[in-house]
From TrEMBL:
InterPro entries according to UniProt: AfsR-DnrI-RedD_regulator, BTAD, OmpR/PhoB-type_DNA-bd, P-loop_NTPase, Sig_transdc_resp-reg_C-effctor, TPR-like_helical_dom_sf, WH-like_DNA-bd_sf
GO molecular function, one term: DNA binding
Pfam families hit by this protein: BTAD (PF03704), Trans_reg_C (PF00486)
The keyword Magnesium is annotated on this UniProt entry: no
Protein name: DNA-binding SARP family transcriptional activator
The OmpR/PhoB-type domain, residue ranges: 1-92
Keywords, ordered alphabetically: DNA-binding, Transcription, Transcription regulation
Record-stated family: Belongs to the AfsR/DnrI/RedD regulatory family.
DNA-binding region: 1-92
Gene3D superfamilies xrefs: P-loop containing nucleotide triphosphate hydrolases, Tetratricopeptide repeat domain, Winged helix-like DNA-binding domain superfamily/Winged helix DNA-binding domain
Superkingdom of origin organism: Bacteria
SUPFAM superfamilies (alphabetical): C-terminal effector domain of the bipartite response regulators (SSF46894), P-loop containing nucleoside triphosphate hydrolases (SSF52540), TPR-like (SSF48452)
Organism: Kribbella voronezhensis
Listed GO biological process terms: phosphorelay signal transduction system; regulation of DNA-templated transcription
């Protein structure tokens, strides 16, 4: 079993819940260099810079090899460290590195995902590595990622109208990062929408004074515009929130469904659409693809929600609301707005919303499933083993979730044959059967279980 690695705080290695002590700072630094570039080849020259900060020993290549050998000895056979193309590559499975999980969660962009991403941080990143320039530079890059994720989370919570709850948190953030204008702007919004206009204006004046004293500059255009909107009254502070997850570049099939849903969201008198089907069948992927196709028709925002605890937009706004994984009709009804907005819902249950257009998804057609594998793996690799690719699609039951998990496993192992992995799945019949019934956890375990 592969170890679990943490670098968003003290550098830590866990094996079956037990911490493996990495005593020497140089070994922790080497591990950090490999983990911030996980699943990529890091050149020997770059690793030497990480380890000796421009003052390498007389024989740096030999010294690097010794450090690598010591690291392997400390962590053991589970360390997927390989010599590759003039450098070293540390292969880390999905879910085994906190930085990878952090980035996946921030890419999802929802309030829940962003909150979970920020909880992964346990202090200053790369703690325990040598305090060299390259380490400090990489630490600064990671800290900037934390700040952007924190800003995203505040934006998502502002969209959920959590104004009063955010005021103390944003007050603290502006104290910790006083030159970060975005936090000040978010504090002004939270105060103003909590009917605390005087405090919102005072926050602007505090920022303006700080910037003049520290940097000799005025606040940026966005903050100055927000200041004017606060002065002009509550109706001027409508914020356009664009919360859609990234579009799925390897989306395949569902062309009839895409056309029908797009048409309903752009032409129907009551633009409400429900997409239902079992877990893993691709409901969210279809909804996100459609949302990106129609987003220009909803210039006042695109909201991505996991619950209905928010206020519908006012009648004069055109907002697209994507409610993912709704459980019942009440959640949908709570969001149906008067006026010009639209609601797009995914659910495991059939939701018969009056006046809405509904579509139910099944698994992909065999040709579509093969096309999805080709898109994720690369057409050249899949076409080298056409029979194995077709077998793998069938073993996954043509279910998009299972297909993506299996293809993700293979994408991280470019040297592994598709046929060998298909044989591996055949040996996991019980778990695979659960995966095809839509059990997400079982699907993950079946496709990612070690050899």
């Amino acid at each position: 079993m592969s170890p679990v690695f943490r670098i968003l705080g003290p550098i830590t290695v866990l094996e079956e819940g037990r911490e493996i002590p990495i005593g020497a700072p140089r070994l922790r630094t080497l591990l950090a260099a490999l983990l911030v570039n996980a699943n990529q080849t890091v050149s020997a020259a770059e690793l030497i810079q990480w380890l000796w900060d421009g003052e390498p020993p007389a024989q740096p290549q030999r010294a690097l090899q010794t450090a690598v050998s010591r690291l392997r000895g400390v962590i053991g056979p589970g360390l997927g460290l390989r010599h590759h193309a003039g450098g070293y590559r540390l292969e880390v499975p999905a879910g085994s590195l906190d930085l990878c999980r952090f980035r996946l969660l921030t890419a999802a962009g929802t309030a829940d995902a962003l909150a979970e991403a920020l909880r992964l941080w346990q202090g200053e990143p790369l703690t325990g590595a040598h305090d060299y320039a390259v380490v400090r530079d990489k630490r600064a890059v990671l800290q900037e990622e934390w700040l952007r994720a924190a800003e995203q989370l505040v934006d998502a919570r502002l969209a959920l109208r959590e104004y009063a709850e955010l005021v103390p948190e944003l007050t603290s953030l502006t104290k910790r990062f006083p030159l970060r204008e975005r936090f000040w702007a978010q504090l002004m919004l939270a105060l103003h929408n909590s009917s605390r206009q005087a405090e919102a204006l005072a926050a602007y004046e505090e920022l303006a004074s700080l910037l003049r004293d520290e940097l000799g500059i005025d606040p940026g255009e966005d903050v100055r515009q927000l200041h004017l909107e606060v002065l002009n009254g509550p109706d001027a502070t409508w914020q356009v929130h664009r919360q859609l997850p990234a579009d799925i570049g390897d989306f395949v099939g569902r062309q009839d469904e895409v056309k029908a849903v797009v048409a309903h969201l752009t032409d129907a008198a009551v633009p409400v659409v429900t997409i239902s089907g079992p877990p893993g069948v691709g409901k969210t992927a279809l909804a996100v693809r459609v949302a990106h196709l129609v987003k220009d028709s909803y210039p006042d925002g695109q909201w991505f929600l996991r619950d209905s605890h928010t206020t519908p937009p006012p009648p004069d706004k055109r907002v697209l609301i994507l409610l993912d994984d709704a459980e019942d009709l009440e959640q949908v009804r709570a969001l149906i707005p008067p006026g010009n907005s639209a609601v797009l819902v995914t659910s495991r249950n059939d939701l018969a919303v009056q006046g809405a257009y509904g579509t139910t998804l099944a698994v992909l057609e065999p040709a579509e499933a093969i096309e999805l594998l080709r898109a994720v793996l690369g057409a050249e690799r899949a076409d080298r083993e056409p029979k194995a690719t077709a077998d793998l699609a069938a073993l996954c039951g043509y279910l998009p979730l299972a297909l993506r998990i299996a293809a993700g496993h293979l994408a991280l192992r470019p040297g592994e044959q598709i046929a060998a992995y298909a044989d591996h799945l055949r040996g996991n019949n019980r778990l695979l059967a659960l995966a095809l019934l839509g059990d997400h956890d079982a699907a993950v375990e079946a496709a990612w279980s070690p050899w």
